[in-house]
Amino acid sequence: MMRQYELVERVRAYNPDVDEDRLNRAYVFTVQMHGTQTRASGDPYFSHPVEVAGLMTDLRMDEDTIITALLHDTVEDTLTSIEDVEARFGPEVARLVDGVTKLSKIEAQTEDERAAENLRKFLLAISDDIRVLLVKLADRLHNMRTLHFIKSPEKRRRIAKETMDIYAPLAERIGMYEYMHEMQLLAFEQLEPEGYATITGRLAQIREQGDVRIEEISQKMADAMDRAGLKAKVYGREKHPYSIWKKMQERHVAFEQLTDINAFRVIVDDIESCYRALGVLHRRWQMVPGRFKDFISTPKRNGYRSLHTTVMFAQNMRVEIQIRSADMHQAAEYGLAAHWAYKQDDQPDGQAGWLRDLIEILETSHEPEELLENTRMAMYQDRIFAFTPKGALHQLPKGATPVDFAYAVHTDLGDRAVGAKINGRHVPLRTLLNNGDMVDILTSKAHVPDPAWLNFAVTGKARAAIRRHVRHRERDEMILLGKKIYEEVVERLPAKIGQKALAAAVERLQLKTADELMYAVGAGKISDRRLIVALVPGFDADAIESEWPSQERAISIRGLTPGVAYNLGECCHPIPGDRIVGLRLPDAPVEVHTIHCDKLVSGTDADWVDLSWGQGSDGGAARLRVIVHNRPGMLAEMAGIFGFHKANILNLRMTARDSAFHTFEVDLEVHDLHHLMRIISALRASDAVAQADRLFS
Ligand code: MN
């Protein structure tokens, strides 16, 4: 176990300004608090936090993080309180320790739920403070290293599985491949003992027999670089046993059939040399098609950069090669943490902390690419993480809605979405998702994407899918509407119009099919009059036109098939400008409600339809509650405000009165939300009025 002075030395080696006294106090504190507690290994418990702190020094973390690592189990497992920690080590450490403690508590929950929940909280932690996550990952890594001491096989398995499913992927996500590989290996050993034994055994055998290949290949590659005048270091290594295992599973092959158990790394000075090295290798050895990947021009999401290729070294011998610069290599091993440590180097005052760095970068970068270049963390700032009910994670841009989420999961799911639940609550599809939301998409087989979704969907995938449907559907809808109009027109004509007359009209209008005609009629490209003349040449359309009902409405609602019947909610009185949602019940007109309507909360079986107001919509009745002071003339004053704003009173009734106040409910005809808000403001500004609010029920 690492001694106190060793730990301090290690921190001082990269951070000469460290407050040694504070570090020492933290060390002593954790030793005292954990007291005589022991680990499964029989070691004193405090050896664990000390080792975790040691792992943090490898990442050259700042003083607060080292102290957090030392204290990370004190609040959870000893009598220490977070207030204690704050009093002794300040608010920053207290906040970090609290973060780690919260994460650990979640582990105590039940199986499935926990897995998802864990992941969720972790990701929340990422967006909060990455150091919490780093300590947690180091904590898990050390626990995995000592996992074999735990007696219960079930417990070992459970921990290993959790590591494989949650922690290793998290390490990968922030680019900490070293942590990821070691966690995977240790978990693999528990979860697939036979596979683990076979592969490690075979690898050892090959090593024992003196595998000259790695050396030979490395040397040949180095020679090739040399001849090309390229400065490069070539490293050969065995692939990780778990990677080999995965490959065997994926390809359904035995170990012996794997020709690429070795992997090589070429480390060069700069980006330019990476591509030159690639050229040298491809000229000398034939590349395996389909295996080249350029993660330099297109880095992985976690910021990983390298060139990957596979060449045929000898007959039947594939060799995988990663080409990268020294900088990229550092970053690839320790990901975000490496980046963080570099920043510390750049700033000798050392205490700036990643958060300040990040803020600085956010403030000074103008281009999105620049942001990504500068910090791996930036990518978490413009993304949110949301989960399916089964705990599958989806990354989405900020501003994403359940529609985006549905399409991210599967195109079919998006196409058939009718509603959504976020964290168990029914919400409209336009609701913005937050980090950590669990999103349950409600579907209906008959449903198709709604054009109104284009008003709020943000991801390319969702928008493209919706547009595709909209194009098809608009046509279908127009045809339907056209048919309706056509039928109305035909009904009003004195002559009977059959298929023949229709066919003739199609021809006269120089169209090809009846559908084309219906579409043109529906889309308003052919007026009723032109249609009549086409159907019955020479007919005097003016004679009947005036009797026809107007097709126009002052308001229109987007998101419904044109012509579909709807009712504005009697409960909440939607007016143009309100956010609205439709409730669709079988065989009934769609009910349009404001987003605030109680009816939406009281859980009906109706499908939710996302709606919005069509352009130029105007007119509606809103309900207000106005409480006025009980004094002469106050009613006239209230009515005067309505009159001044040119709003008609449709209904007015007194609902309560006492000696001081009279309460009225007023149904008011207004243009739109804007109009209503001006009226409410005027009411509130008036001396006569004590209170004025809109009612949604
Ligand atoms: Mn721990």
CATH class designation of the largest domain: Mainly Alpha
- Stretches where pLDDT is under 50 for at least 5 consecutive residues are 340-380, 545-553
Name given to the CATH architecture of the largest domain = Orthogonal Bundle
Shape: flat
Polypeptide structure, described:
This protein is of the alpha+beta class and 697 residues long. The chain has four domains: 4-196, Hypothetical protein af1432, CATH 1.10.3210; 197-338, Beta Polymerase, domain 2; 469-543, no CATH class; 554-697, ACT domain (Alpha-Beta Plaits, 2-Layer Sandwich), CATH 3.30.70. It is built from 28 helices and 20 strands. Strands 1, 2, 3, 4, 5 and 6 form a six-stranded mixed beta sheet that branches. Strands 12-16-14-15-13 form a five-stranded mixed beta sheet, with no helix packed on it. It has a four-stranded antiparallel beta sheet with strand order 18-19-17-20, with helices on one face. Strand 7 (383-387) and strand 8 form a beta hairpin. The radius of gyration is 35 Å and the shape is flat. The protein starts with a helix and ends with a strand. The relative contact order is 0.05. The structure holds manganese (II) ion. Manganese (II) ion binds next to loops. Manganese (II) ion is lined by residues 48, 72-73, 139.
